[in-house]
Amino acid sequence: MRNKTQNSKVKTQNHNSKRKTDLRYRCYCFSINIMKFLERLPKSRNCCIIGDQLLRAATSIGANVTEAKSASSKRDFVKFYEIALKSANETKYWLGLLRDGVEIERAKISPLLREVQELSSIIASSLLTMKGKK
Fold first, then answer.
1. Above 80 in pLDDT, residue 5?
2. What single-letter DSSP state applies at residue 81?
């Protein structure tokens, strides 16, 4: 018989493995990683302006995916996912601009670009499924 600690450990492991694939959780973690990244950006005017835009676009992805979960209709749900996809595409633009226009180590931006590309692909695939085009 398992003791209480072993039971909670098993539940936590199952819970954590589900979280790795949960879109809302990935969007939430992505937003946090963007905020941490922005804290390390140079404090130049350009970086501040682009950083503000990046923060708005990146956090909008998760906010719209979360809103979709409580949508009142399928049409509403699709609309929130469409907005999330647009925000993901905008996020890619701002990250690319920072990567190519500011003296920043590419190693700091590359994982963020990879993750937003994956989020974008998941959202786009979900939209195609919802619209019956897949």
1. no
2. H
Q: How far apart are CA 118 and CA 44, in angstroms?
A: 30
Please give the Cα distance from 117 to 85 (Å, whole number).
10
Written as six digits, the tokens of 30 are 């992505």
Q: Are 51 and 38 in contact (CB under 8 A)?
A: yes
How much is the pTM? 0.82
The Cα 108–Cα 83 span in angstroms is 26
Q: Is-contact 61 27, C-beta < 8 A?
A: yes
E strand or H helix at 43: none
Q: Which domains does the chain have, with CATH numbers?
A: 24-130 (1.20.1440.60)
Q: Tens digit of pLDDT for each residue in 11-22?
A: 444 445 555 569
**Alpha-helical runs (H) found in 1-134:** 4-21, 23-39, 45-69, 74-101, 106-130
